[in-house]
Structures are given as structure tokens and as C-alpha cells.
Amino acid sequence: MNALDIKNLQKTYKNGVNALKGVDLTVKQGDFFALLGPNGAGKSTAIGIICSLVTKTAGKVEVFGHDLDKDSAGVRMHIGLVPQEFNFNIFEPIREILINQAGYYGINRKEASHRAETYLKQLDLWDKRFDIAKELSGGMKRRLMIARALMHRPKLLILDEPTAGVDIEIRHSMWKFLKQVNEEGTTIILTTHYLEEAESLCNNIAIIDHGITIEQTQMRSLLDRLHVETFILYLSKAINTLPDCGAHVVRLIDETTLEVDINQQQNISDVFQALHKCDIEVVSMKNKTNRLEQLFISMTNNKNNSNQEGSRT
Amino acid sequence: MNFSQQMVALKTIFIKEYLRFIRIWIQTILPPAITIALYFIIFGQVIGSQISDINGYKYMDYIVPGLILMAVITNSYANVVSSFFSAKFHHSVEEMLVSPLPNNIILLGFVAGGVARGLIVGFVATVVSMYFSDLQVHSYLVTFSVVILTSVLFSLAGFINAAYARSFDDITIIPTFVLTPLIYLGGVFYSIKMLPEIWQQVSLANPILYMVNAFHYGILGVSDIEVANAFIIIIAFIVVLYYFALRLLRLGVGLKP
Question: Which residues of chain A are within 8 Å of residue B250 when distances are taken between CB atoms?
């Protein structure tokens, strides 16, 4: 059974904005799934519809076999949502926020208190349990929303930019926690603008742009489509002229920095060997841009270009 | 959700609502106590001493039921309208909307919170009134049923106001321009028998008149209208407002784009 099945999902707002023009999506049970798209692509609208916060115009949504039109409560019972914007009462103590959320799913206060303790400890919020939400830092508020979404132990967790504005250390601890949640059997759908986050966490990916699904595939096969990767090499000694690296395209950025393009038929170790022959030592290297980011930009740009061409005809 | 889960959910919303207004008791419980004490001092003692008896009661005693019920009405309404609108404003209402909570449980939870505040403020107002008056209750059954039903009715009205409200201004317009005039013209401070015939007939169109007079009957044993009519009108309003509020929730008015 799929965790999520969406067919031809459409949404036109009252002001005439056509946010979704026909989104199709399938997320397998147990998957860690990336839902990407530029700002305004329709990701949050699609999530809002799945979670019953936005009314759809047309299309079909099924969560673990429960049809949103026929069994909305069944759909909602299986979903945990971490929205993009903070949406808790900032004047409530954080432990109360969690216990109340569990209560909305019919979980009694004793069990809810136990679960709240578990998640607050796992997310390093236990010391803050009696503080009102207003007093938490941005990172703590994000973690509070994750804890809240897990209180009823949903089978499908939807994270809408869960690490936005969070420092790198906390972001990595959140990744670790989310990986653990996924490994314990929870299907996760993640939207993010940090593409290294999607690349690092997710197995499958869909890209939405201008309200339609432009791609849905495995992360691995998508990354394989990247024809050229650009690496930046930092050298131990200064050089003035470009070294001979054979068929590889190499650019001198400054005296101690080289940029090299590697296509799918080439191997980076050949570049190292060529540099070694020229008595050039590489002390460190990095990708110029994230691989997924390169693909994402090219795919959404292609779509925009074809849309513009289409609109001219 | 099965029945037992729904009851847990209802209890959760009620506790949340109760703790909300208790946490800020200086804003929610204390002001009505001060206001009602001022009404007793100014209208009861200072002005009331110049006014003759109404329906066989001293003016001070006559206004006690109306003032208590006025506190219940305004606080039941204020609790739900401010709480539900704040939940919309902060988007914390989404916590409930994404859960499998049935709409009637959401509505009943907010109404229960409004009734709790109405009854607590009504109790405080009664305690304050005992300092100024030593009235005995004529009918406990009528008194308690009127106060509870009235509180339910205005909690529902507050919920509907909050559903439509788009700004904090919108939640003060109805209490200021509709509720307060209707309460003041609803026989809290006078008997409609003191009015010219035409205004007596006009007053009968004011639903709050029936509630105030039924409450008058419960405490004093006197009323300008048939108490049975008052109960019919209150219950009819409750049924209509309940289904209307449920419809707003179902359609997502003010909640879902």
C-alpha cells in the first residue's frame, strides 16, 4: 500500500490564482521523500490539501488507502504535520502544547504526558518543558513542532521546511532524529530549500513547478543525470599558469585555486595524477555547488523557458 | 474516532480553554467583579435610592439578577470570540483542523470554555451582589437552567462572530454595537411595564429581554413575560446558532482557503 497517492490535484483560489494545475504524486510506505520546487510552485498548497487545511478544487488524494473525500478523519488520523510557519499558541507552556495535541487524537493525558516526556527529551527540550513557547529560540520552536507532530505517532510525517532558519549544528541533529524516525517505520515527506538536506536524507524525489509535477524519480537516478560536476581544488603552492590536465577542462581561479569540470566519462583521480606530474599538490577540494542544486536549477529553468516559449506561440 | 476518544478530545479542549482564562484571571475574572460592584454602588445605592420599588422590590434588589446575567452574557461571549479568533490569528487552530476531531467536538469544546467562564464570573458577581443585597432564590431550577442556557447561547454567538472576524476590530464591533445595547434595553435596569405601550411591544423583539426576565423570575419570582416563552426562545436560538456554527466549521468559513 502506498503512503500517499495524489492524482490530478488542482487548486484555484478565489482570487483566480491557479496554484495547482494537476499534481500527481506517489509516495511509498516507509519512504523518505523529497518534495521540491521553487517558491510559489504549489508545495505548501498541496500539503495544505493533504492535511485538510486547504480545500481542493479537483483531484484525488489517498493516504494509506483512506480517500480524503470519503474518509477525511481517517486521512487526518495518519498524518503528522510540521508546517512552514510557527502555528502554536505562543503563550502556552510547551508541555501543554504537546499534551493538548495528543488529546485532539483521543490520547488520554497520562499517555500523552509519557509521550511528551519521550519526545521532549529526544529533541533536547525537556529542560524547557514549563516555559511558554514564546520564550523558545527559533531552533527550539522548530523542534517543538516536530515533537508535536509525532505525539499521535503518525504513519506519515509531512515536514514543510522544518529546518528553515536553523543553525547547522541543530540542523544536523534534526537530520539524525528524522532518519531515526524514518527507520522506525514512519514515512516522511520533506520540502526544503536546503537541497543538500534533501540529497542527504531522501531516497525518492518529486519536483513541482508552476503547479504541476515536472519530475518524480529515485534520488540516485536523478543525480546520475548530472552530466558535469564542477570541483574546486585548493593547492599547497601558488601557480601562475594552467597545468596540462589532458582532456579535462580546468580553470585557474587564483594562484592557489583551480576549478575543474568532470563529466560522466571522466574520473577525478586522473586530474590528481596530471597535477602530480606537474608537481602540484592538492590540499583540499569541494563541490562547487550541490549536485541536486545544479539539477534543480537546470530542470526548473528548462521548464520556465519552455513555458515562456509556449506562451509566445 | 470512537466515542471515548471524542470525550478525551472534548475534555482536552475544555481544559485548554479553562486554563487559558484562569491563567489571565486579572483580565478575565477580576474586571467583571469590579464593574458589577460599581454598578451596585452607582445605580443601586446612589441613583437607586431615589427610585421607587419595582414589582414589589427595592431598586437595588431588582437589578441584581440583571447585572449577574449581564456578566454571564458578556463573559461567555467574550471568552469564545477572543479565544477562537486568537486561535485563527496565531494559526494554532490548525492544530485542531489537522487532527481527526469532529466539528461538533471543536464547537462543544469552545462553548464549554465559554460556559465555564460565564458561570465563574456569574458566581463572582453573585458573591459581590450579596454585599449589597440579601435576596433569596425563588427557584433554583429556573435560575440555574436560565444561566446555563444563556451562557451556551452567547458562547455560540461568540464562536460565530470569531469565525467571520478578520481582525481584532471585528470581534469588538458586535459586543459594542449590538450586544451591549440589547442588554441595556433588555430590562436589566427597569421593568418594561414602566415603558409606554409602543416601547413595550418593541422591547419584546429583544431576545435578551426574555433571558433577563426568566432570570428575574428564578431569583425574584417576578417577570414581565411568560417564563415558558423565554425557555422556548432561548432553546430555539441555541439550536439555530449551533447548527449555523457547525455549518461554518464544515465549510471552513474563515478557516480554510
Answer: none
Is the confidence at residue A91, as pLDDT, over 60?
A: yes
User: Residue A313: pLDDT above 50?
Assistant: no
In whole angstroms, give the CA distance from residue B147 to residue A40. 51
Residues of A with CB under 8 A from a CB of B: 13-14, 48, 51-55, 73-74, 76-77, 79, 81, 83, 85-92, 96, 99-101, 103-109, 148, 152
**Can you give the pTM of this predicted structure?**
0.85
Pick the CATH number of A2-223 from 3.40.50.720, 3.40.50.300, 3.10.290.10, 3.30.565.10: 3.40.50.300
User: Looking at the domain A227-291, which fold is it?
Assistant: Alpha-Beta Plaits (3.30.70)
Complex confidence, ipTM: 0.88
Which chain B residue's Cα is nearest to A104?
A: B9
Round the average pLDDT of chain B to a whole number and report it: 92
CA A77 – CA A201 distance, rounded (Å): 25
HSE-up of residue A3 (Cα within 13 Å, Cβ side): 21
Residue A134 gets which letter from DSSP? Answer: G
Predicted local distance difference test score (pLDDT) of residue B57: 84
Read off the pLDDT of each residue in B11-22 and give the average, rounded to a whole number. 96
For residue B7, which amino acid is it?
Answer: M
